[in-house]
């Protein structure tokens, strides 16, 4: 009886001790670790020991080309040839929209996208302390940016030239700024030449969203123009322009020497940032260029290694 009573009293004392400790809200996790609600884990339910899901664009993507160059994931080998060192474990997405959807659906994913195409389904992180904004690109504090180019070969039709004039006019450049990009021209107001006919525009999925806005606005001032936009990637767009299967090619990068040698003339219509994006449940707010480089090369594979 005394033994039972002693155990009962010990149980009460133990319960009291635990209640006293409860003032600091200690709890024990399944793994046996103790946490304190008064000073919660900053990562919440985010498991930093989880593998990083790297999401990249396909070969031929202008965004990928600009990304690997700007972050040093691409290097020249001993023969002077450029080599892309993106990890073989990367998930490959063939458009900006798919990159964002993939990152939005995976707590541990990281990817990159056009700044102007960002939406609130993902979180854009700072790079070396600078937020990815048009203002920061203009003032030079955010250095991860690239041009949006259109390319033509030889003489274009009157209606294609009219559309290009619209894009570069104050009217077209305002649409570019309104959609989060940086304008490339200070030309005056648009005056149409009145031409009619069909224009085929093909290429970059990063340029496509703003091109669709430009198309919509232009056709309101020139209803005689019919514009077909074919979304693919920068390399496909440049090839189509060289082959003559489109009137205007779109590229979200500088043109390659082979494309210029193929007879293409480039016109920068806007400047765009490349945003590094993570899932909204990821507590990461700031990364360095070196950290991004290591992640996309596959040298850093879990979030707790990001230091």
Automatic annotation (TrEMBL):
It comes from the Bacteria. The keyword Transmembrane helix does not apply. It is a lipid-anchor. SUPFAM superfamilies: Periplasmic binding protein-like II. The lineage of its organism: Bacteria, Bacillati, Bacillota, Clostridia, Lachnospirales. Keywords: Lipoprotein, Palmitate, Phosphate transport, Signal, Transport. It holds the Pfam family PBP_like_2. Residues 49-170, 191-305 form the PBP domain. PANTHER family: PERIPLASMIC PHOSPHATE BINDING COMPONENT OF PHOSPHATE ABC TRANSPORTER, PHOSPHATE-BINDING PROTEIN PSTS. Residues 1-25 form the signal peptide. The complex is composed of two ATP-binding proteins (PstB), two transmembrane proteins (PstC and PstA) and a solute-binding protein (PstS). This is Substrate-binding domain-containing protein. Part of the ABC transporter complex PstSACB involved in phosphate import. It is found in: Cell membrane. Residues 24-59 are annotated as: Disordered. Residues 24-47 have a biased composition (Low complexity). The keyword Hydrolase does not apply. It comes from Roseburia yibonii.
């Amino acid at each position: 009886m005394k033994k039972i009573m002693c155990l009962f009293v010990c149980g009460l004392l133990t319960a009291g001790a635990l209640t006293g400790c409860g003032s600091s809200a200690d709890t024990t996790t399944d793994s046996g670790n103790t946490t304190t609600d008064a000073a919660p884990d900053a990562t919440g339910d985010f498991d930093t020991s989880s593998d990083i899901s790297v999401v990249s664009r396909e070969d031929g993507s202008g965004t990928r080309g600009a990304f690997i160059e700007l972050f040093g994931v691409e290097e020249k080998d001993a023969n002077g040839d450029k080599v892309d060192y993106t990890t073989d474990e990367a998930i490959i997405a063939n458009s900006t929209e798919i990159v964002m959807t993939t990152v939005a659906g995976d707590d541990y994913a990281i990817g990159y996208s056009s700044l102007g195409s960002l939406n609130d389904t993902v979180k854009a992180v700072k790079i070396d302390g600078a937020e990815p904004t048009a203002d920061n690109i203009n003032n030079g504090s955010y250095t991860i940016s690239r041009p949006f180019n259109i390319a033509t070969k030889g003489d274009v039709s009157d209606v294609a030239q009219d559309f290009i004039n619209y894009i570069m006019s104050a009217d077209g450049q305002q649409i570019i700024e309104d959609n989060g990009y940086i304008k490339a021209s200070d030309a005056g107001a648009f005056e149409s030449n009145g031409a009619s006919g069909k224009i085929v525009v093909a290429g970059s999925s990063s340029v496509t969203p703003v091109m669709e806005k430009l198309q919509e606005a232009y056709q309101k001032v020139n209803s005689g123009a019919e514009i077909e936009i074919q979304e693919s990637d920068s390399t496909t767009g440049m090839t189509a322009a060289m082959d003559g299967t489109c009137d205007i090619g779109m590229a979200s990068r500088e043109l390659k020497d082979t494309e210029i040698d193929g007879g293409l003339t480039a016109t920068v219509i806007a400047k765009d940032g490349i945003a590094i994006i993570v899932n909204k449940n990821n507590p990461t707010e700031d990364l360095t260029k070196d950290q991004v480089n290591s992640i996309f090369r596959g040298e850093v594979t879990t979030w707790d290694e990001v230091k």
